[in-house]
């Protein structure tokens, strides 16, 4: 009996280890040839406070056997304090493997790829969170200071003019390995791409002009001001391909044809994450009590913060109960697989929209609270409001 229990414990431990490694790697598919170089393009103007830049990248469509460009765009973070770790392609056993991006308190490893505009291979130098507000580095972003006052200016080294390689490892790839801190960031709590980012991927995949074979590494839509908006103002075309487009030059010798990896899902890279329910989300962390030197203002702000947290928690619980009731009704009615899939998609959309709404509410509240005196370097200059 003791032997059986030990064996079961060992099997369970091995299962959990495999699951944790799969979750950490966030692998999509394995492709026998690398993606084209990153195109040259200008960043569109930031649409407003609280938006964070998510750089463009090459994804792969199994249906067409071709890479396609997912334009960079501005996205609201799903939670105050969260930053974006971009996806990347890395050489693995048998080909190039896609590693999905994610949101989290720290920026993890993204292959050492120099995407530009704050993402220069390590970390993010395009902005930082301060007292619940996001401050933009003007040297790395296209910011209208008339509308956005949360800015600072720190010069950073931009390697994208020298190296536009879009993959890590393999023949001609970037030679970079994750640091201990970057590995820890991937293992710690983080969130998948938000609904607006999935919308950007779906719109790009459906556009034949964004396939590498059609645009030869110079996509007509390289970046957008808003996710999913591929026409009109705010759409930026590529100025040039990052390197001459020769797909066979990126192919490694004696490699198998494109094939799904063991962790792959069907036909879409990056594939939409599994449905997320409100009950699966952790409660929002309560921001530290403010200190601006004005005791009355700090106390008033803290009361507003507590009221907002209580309101959001109530909405969180209400949505969780609603989704659970819908699950129970579907089970009682023996709903079809198609109906269940549609319900799960609706639940994911509801949850992500709630998280985005809560992030906007927190940003709006934080905008009414001035930064602490210790962060005067990030204060807007007098008379600029």
Q: What would the average pLDDT be, to the nearest integer? A: 79
Number of continuous helical runs: 6
Strand order of the largest sheet: 1-8-7-15
Q: Portion of residues in helices?
A: 25-40%
Question: Beta fraction of the residues?
Answer: 15-25%
- Helix and strand succession? HEEEEEEEEEEEEEEEHHHEEHH
Describe this structure in words.
The chain folds into 2 domains: 26-250, no CATH class; 278-378, no CATH class. Helix 5 (295-332) runs antiparallel to helix 6. By secondary structure, it is of the alpha+beta class. Helix content is 30%, strand content 16%. A hairpin with a 2-residue loop joins strand 10 (114-116) and strand 11 (119-120). The model is unreliable at 1-27, 248-275 and 374-385 (pLDDT under 50).
Topology readout:
Layout: H1 2-25, E1 27-31, E2 51-54, E3 57-61, E4 66-70, E5 72-76, E6 83-85, E7 88-92, E8 95-99, E9 102-104, E10 114-116, E11 119-120, E12 127-130, E13 133-137, E14 151-152, E15 167-168, H2 180-187, H3 195-205, H4 212-215, E16 223-224, E17 235-236, H5 295-332, H6 337-366
Parallel strand pairs: 5-16, 7-15, 13-14
Antiparallel strand pairs: 1-8, 2-5, 3-4, 6-9, 7-8, 10-11, 12-13, 16-17
Q: What descriptors fit this protein?
A:
385 residues; 17 strands; disordered C terminus; alpha+beta; 4-stranded mixed beta sheet; 6 helices
């Amino acid at each position: 009996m003791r032997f059986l229990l030990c064996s079961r414990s060992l099997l369970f431990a091995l299962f959990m280890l495999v699951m944790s490694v799969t979750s950490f790697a966030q692998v999509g598919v394995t492709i026998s040839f690398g993606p084209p170089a990153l195109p040259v393009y200008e960043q569109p103007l930031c649409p407003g406070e609280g938006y964070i830049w998510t750089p463009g990248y090459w994804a792969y469509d199994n249906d067409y056997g071709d890479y396609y460009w997912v334009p960079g765009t501005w996205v609201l973070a799903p939670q105050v304090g969260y930053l974006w770790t971009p996806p990347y392609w890395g050489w693995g056993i048998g080909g190039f493997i896609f590693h999905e991006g994610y949101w989290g308190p720290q920026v993890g490893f993204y292959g050492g790829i120099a995407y530009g505009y704050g993402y220069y291979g390590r970390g993010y130098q395009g902005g930082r969170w301060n007292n619940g507000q996001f401050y933009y580095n003007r040297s790395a972003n296209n910011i209208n200071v008339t509308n956005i006052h949360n800015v600072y200016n720190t010069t950073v080294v931009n390697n994208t003019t020298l190296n536009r390689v879009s993959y890590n490892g393999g023949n001609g790839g970037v030679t970079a390995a994750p640091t201990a801190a970057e590995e820890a960031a991937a293992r710690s709590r983080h969130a998948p791409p938000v609904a607006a980012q999935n919308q950007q991927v779906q719109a790009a995949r459906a556009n034949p002009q964004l396939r590498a074979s059609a645009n030869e590494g110079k996509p007509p839509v390289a970046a957008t001001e808003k996710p999913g908006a591929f026409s009109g103002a705010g759409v930026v075309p590529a100025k040039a391909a990052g390197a001459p487009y020769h797909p066979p030059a990126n192919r490694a010798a004696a490699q198998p044809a494109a094939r799904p990896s063991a962790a792959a899902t069907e036909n879409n890279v990056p594939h939409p994450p599994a449905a997320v329910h409100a009950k699966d989300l952790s409660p929002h962390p309560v921001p530290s009590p403010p200190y601006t030197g004005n005791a009355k203002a700090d106390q008033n702000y803290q009361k507003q913060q507590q009221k907002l947290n209580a309101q959001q928690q109530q909405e969180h619980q209400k949505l969780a109960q609603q989704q659970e009731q819908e699950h129970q009704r579907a089970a009682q009615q023996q709903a079809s697989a198609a109906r269940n899939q549609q319900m799960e998609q609706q639940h994911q959309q509801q949850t992500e929209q709630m998280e985005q709404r809560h992030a906007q509410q927190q940003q709006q509240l934080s905008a009414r609270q001035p930064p602490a005196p210790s962060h005067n370097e990030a204060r807007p200059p007098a008379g600029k409001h």
